[in-house]
Design a protein that fits this description.
Elements: E1 2-6, E2 13-18, H1 25-37, E3 58-63, H2 66-71, H3 93-104, E4 110-117, E5 124-127, H4 132-140, E6 145-148, H5 157-160, E7 164-171, H6 175-191, E8 205-215, E9 222-223, E10 236-239, E11 244-247, E12 252-255, E13 265-276, E14 286-288, E15 316-319
Parallel strand pairs: 2-3, 2-4, 4-7, 5-6, 6-8
Antiparallel strand pairs: 1-3, 5-7, 8-13, 9-10, 10-11, 11-15, 12-13, 13-14
Helix pairs in contact: 1-6
Length: about 325
């Protein structure tokens, strides 16, 4: 792991992490580019890798999984983004690395983790714990969607390190991912006051709740819908020689939809739950699309004694 500390224009301590997966070079290139662009940390300002930034704040840039980056492979022993919070005594390299990376990010006011995938555009953000810092990051990024992953895995960086947002910046290996990711990082630094080249901008962001992974079986895979595209009830989202995933519930959308991005899943099902409002424009919560009726009255999904959520078993029909 390589840690590079740079000057901040404000007092916040923020971090940007690239190279969590060694076969995603965009994050590595973005971190290296930012290291060249930002001013070196002034030792008299109290910053440094000992974690004490004093009043000056700092920007911490991290290249996480250096052996995997060197080998151009996703990981060496186990997926780093499935190994948090880690184990310092583990024989698995990434599990030990997760513990060290967690320590490097301790006390940060905001963290942005960079990722790419084989999935189709558009880029989007991911959070697991909605804090004021996370709201500021998400609504300040140039993305239209954010995935609420709080009900999914509990072993990712954004699910274990407070104030962390992950961002899928584009297609793996593309120049577009590097350019978009760089602009997204600058936006992140602006909204937390780390750079002052121009004022930050904020906008409402559509929140998509991550529901469940959609498994692959084997044979030739086919995916019929793109990320965040509404899947009509009764339509087949994805299929291979083992599974046919026919959606039997309205309102589902794909997340990380890909035929060859993962060995074991086609992606995930999600549901649009509402919007996240910018700081100063609303409370710290997701504003549901159906919160108010046509006459402005609040709708209570529990009025009929149910919570308004479908049973997991009803979300899709899988046949083999």
């Amino acid at each position: 792991m390589q840690t590079i500390d740079r000057e901040s224009a404000g007092s916040a301590r923020v971090a940007i992490v690239g190279g969590i997966h060694g076969d995603e070079p965009a994050g590595v290139r973005i971190v290296e580019r930012l290291a060249d662009e930002l001013d070196p940390l002034d030792p008299s300002g109290g910053g440094g890798s000992d974690g004490d930034a004093g009043e000056a704040g700092l920007v911490r840039l991290i290249l996480a999984n250096e052996p995997a980056i060197e080998a151009e492979t996703r990981y060496t022993d186990t997926d780093l983004n499935r190994a948090f919070p880690g184990d310092a005594d583990s024989d698995e390299y990434e599990r030990g690395l997760a513990s060290r990376l967690t320590a490097e990010l301790e006390g940060m006011d905001a963290v942005l983790a960079l990722h790419t995938s084989h999935s189709a555009p558009p880029p989007f953000a991911i959070f697991s714990d909605l804090t004021e810092s996370v709201r500021r990051t998400v609504t300040g990024l140039p993305v239209a969607h954010v995935v609420d992953a709080s009900g999914l895995r509990s072993t990712t960086l954004d699910s274990t390190v407070q104030h962390t947002v992950s961002i899928e910046v584009g297609r793996q290996g593309s120049e577009e991912a590097v350019e978009f990711g760089h602009e997204a990082c600058l936006a992140f630094l602006r909204v937390h006051g780390a750079i002052a080249d121009k004022p930050p901008t904020f906008s409402e962001t559509t929140v998509v709740e991550g529901r469940e992974e959609v498994p692959k079986g084997g044979g030739v895979p086919h995916v019929h819908f793109a990320n965040f595209e509404a899947i009509p009830e009764g339509a087949v989202f994805a299929e291979d020689d083992v599974y046919t995933h026919r959606v039997e519930e309205p309102g589902l959308v794909p997340i990380l939809a890909s035929e060859d991005g993962y060995d074991d899943i086609f992606g995930m099902y999600g549901r649009v739950t509402g919007v996240l409002k910018a700081p100063g424009e609303g409370d710290l919560r997701v504003y549901p699309n159906d919160e108010r009726g046509e006459k402005g009255e609040r709708r209570d999904s529990s009025a009929d004694g149910s919570d308004g959520e479908p049973n997991d078993a009803d979300r899709s029909k899988r046949s083999s």
